[in-house]
Amino acid sequence: MKITHLRHFVAVAEELHFVRAADSLGISRAKLDSSIRALEAQVGSDLFDRRQESTTLTGAGVALLDHARIELAEFDERPPAPPAPPGGKAKASKGTGRAPIVKGEPRPYKNRQSR
Description:
The chain has 115 residues and is mainly α. The chain has helices at residues 3-15, 18-25, 29-43, 59-77, and strands spanning 48-50, 55-57. It has a two-stranded antiparallel ribbon. Strand 1 and strand 2 (55-57) form a beta hairpin. The longest helix is centred in the middle third of the chain and has 19 residues, at 59-77. It starts with a helix and ends in a 38-residue tail after the last helix. The mean pLDDT is 80.
């Protein structure tokens, strides 16, 4: 399970409202919904009972909520990863190339078409 999926799940579980949870996370509702759907696919059952009137947690959702809070707490307590070494990818030299084509002159490697 991805940490972002767990963060999204906990936000929706606390709000019990997808739009408010998306606003509090600063993401779109579609992204939040796809994240929850991916988590439900990993778990193998629905985590929320989505009705027009309200959103509630299912039994699997209640069980996962405790596990998700523990995982997030452990993740937040970990020391940060060491920074990457300075530098980056070396860029290959592309050479000098050709001079730009002048309009009206034939390309140097093309033969002029005769009529």
